[in-house]
Amino acid sequence: MSLSPPSSNSPPSSLMSSTTASSATADSSTVPTATFPIIYSVLCLHDFDSDDPDHLPFSKNEILEIVKQEESGWWAAMRKGFTRVGWIPRAYVQPLSEEMADKLWNVREELRAYEYGAEQLYNTAPIATSVQIYDPPRRQPSRKQVRVCSHASSTDVASDLWRIANKRAREDQERILSEDRALPASPSMLAAINKPTPPTPREERHRSNSSPSHRSGSSRDKRDANNVTSPKVSVDKIKQLTGSEDAVDWVIARHNSSMPWYLRPQYADQLRLDKDGNIRMATLPALVERLSTPQNTKALASEESFRDAFLMTFRTFTTADTLFEMLVDRFRMNPPDDLTADSQFSEWKEKKLQPTRNRVLTVFTVWLEDHRLLEEEPHIAQRLTDFLRLITPPSPLAGVANLIIEKIQSLTFSPPQIFPSGTPKRKDKNWAEVGLAKQDPANIAEQLCLLEFKLYSKISPQECLRSAKTKAHGDIANLTAFCATYDRLSAWVKMSILTSDILSKRASTVDFWIKVAEKCKQLNNHASMSALINGLMSTVIQRLHLTWAHSHRKQTLEALVRYNEPTGGFHAYRTLLQATEGPCVPFIGMYLTDISHIHDHSKEPFICFQKRQRWYELISFMLKFQKRPYNIAESETTQIFISNHLTHTTSKDTAWFWNKSQEVQHLEMENADIRRGLEEAGFLNS
């Protein structure tokens, strides 16, 4: 590929020392430089090779640093730590955030594109942001909680916004002017008759929203720019015009500084927020302070979302005993020593102590009712009861404390909830003694729904979190049992086909399982549907070409297979699940993979809460169907039939399936040769 600009436009030789396409073979004599300010880093998604001395060849998975951008689509780039600057085509690279660039530098070069794709998949996967595993009644917020803080005027915030934006614009302009003389001649300077067009990769590419091309404001954004006195517009403009997390932190810090010192958060400087006001990382004291402090700033994350994400995931960075003690300390916090007037103490008590105590009791209630306090930490229940009994009249919270104690007692002594709560067991023929060929596919599919849902409903969020960090099945017994059923059902499909000695019987068995899979899809039993398809599409079954030639439902299977395809991160299946309502047993394998691939790059003492928030969203969506049981009557004999066959599959290993498949395949080939000979001899019609 040659994209050569005129030689007269070649850059100074001091800046254009030769180098190869790979960073691994870059000229070691190149001197590190600080000449060009870095705009941001980019990930190379494709190989780019060029003989032009003004171009910078590169290989897929390299990370380059952009020092200038041209509207023509050519960008000036250099490798980290080297001085050579060259032009690269925009279409071949993907801009990275600073956080993403840091992550990818710590990933092996050949895996960077895959890692970036996986991260984008997790960010864009269809996850219901408002879904909850449980749906307890929510207490109406008090007047104090909904009151909007008025300490910082909107005019001041707007003024701060424009100062930041104008300063950044001036710096960008000065930087661009200073770079123009040192950079190699831009390809956009060529005559129009020979103006090069940046090459685009052959394969179809989807640009990320992080691309600068998506940052230009719409006409509505431009109209809003004239209305910066609105508080909401001010926050939006900070994010839009600066794109800086530090700018958001600065505005929030300025808001806190306008409060009386004795009302300010103690650990606000230990919070790191993203541009939307959500917590990226924080220390444990800062997280507990946020958890137990009512928030009223629109730019910050939803209180309920943060609270639920914290209570679901706190066991990954601290213990239940530590959290309990820190919450009790927040409830019993003492006034600051430097209060100089009774009015200050009264304000501190009214605006900080009392709201904090209310919030602590709310956190204990949600922990108890929604986040398995009794199941995961039964010893905390006694400690909590002892603490609550100390809250007595005339404390205004004595009544709330008594209600929580009653709730602990009712949950402790109430019988466990049993799923599914459908219709009574039905009496039918003894299906346990009937062979597979005489079973009703619809009946098998319905009973698989009940079997799978019973296992699915027992999975806890903590098991999903532990699955990403341990291989010991003792801590994830329910999750292991559910996933094992997937493998056993897939093995049952393969075994039933391979053990059928007659060709027509094998083809009929294939069609039987396709009917069951189709019915499972109709019943939203995606777990069983996926397992059945996995068995039918396995190599040991797909190689039986003569069997498939006699199947009558291959087109139905082809329509189902797309839900098992991993293309686009199981895009077809995610879309199907997103639209699913009512009873459902989801296929959760891809979500468990998502959970295990969410990386933590925070450094002590900071906790990557952004990672926990994504865990919470994934797990909440994965388990949201647990309270929607099937209204299907259970057939005891069919359940026995299914259970016996699933248990029997554990006696066969991978080698057995492969050897049996070879045996059946050879038998089919021999029969095909005999049939062909009889047809040639005229004994059979061809």
TrEMBL record:
Gene3D superfamilies xref list: Ras guanine-nucleotide exchange factors catalytic domain, SH3 Domains, Son of sevenless (SoS) protein Chain: S domain 1
Ras-GEF domain mapped to chain residues: 440-667
Biological processes, Gene Ontology terms: Ras protein signal transduction
Molecular-function GO term, any one: guanyl-nucleotide exchange factor activity
Classification via SUPFAM superfamilies: Ras GEF, SH3-domain
Pfam families xref list: RasGEF (PF00617), RasGEF_N (PF00618), SH3_1 (PF00018)
SH3 domain ranges (all copies): 37-98
Residue ranges of domain N-terminal Ras-GEF in the record: 275-412
Biased composition annotated in UniProt, kind: Basic and acidic residues: 173-182
GO cellular component assignments: plasma membrane
Keyword flag Membrane: no
PROSITE patterns: RASGEF_CAT, RASGEF_NTER, SH3
InterPro entries per the UniProt record, alphabetical: Ras-like_GEF, Ras-like_Gua-exchang_fac_N, Ras_GEF_dom_sf, RASGEF_cat_dom, RASGEF_cat_dom_sf, SH3-like_dom_sf, SH3_domain
Keywords attached to this entry: Guanine-nucleotide releasing factor, SH3 domain
Keyword rRNA processing: no
Disordered: annotated span: 1-29, 173-237
SMART domains in the record: RasGEF, RasGEFN, SH3
The protein's name: Ras GEF
Protein's organism: Pleurotus ostreatus (strain PC15) (Oyster mushroom)
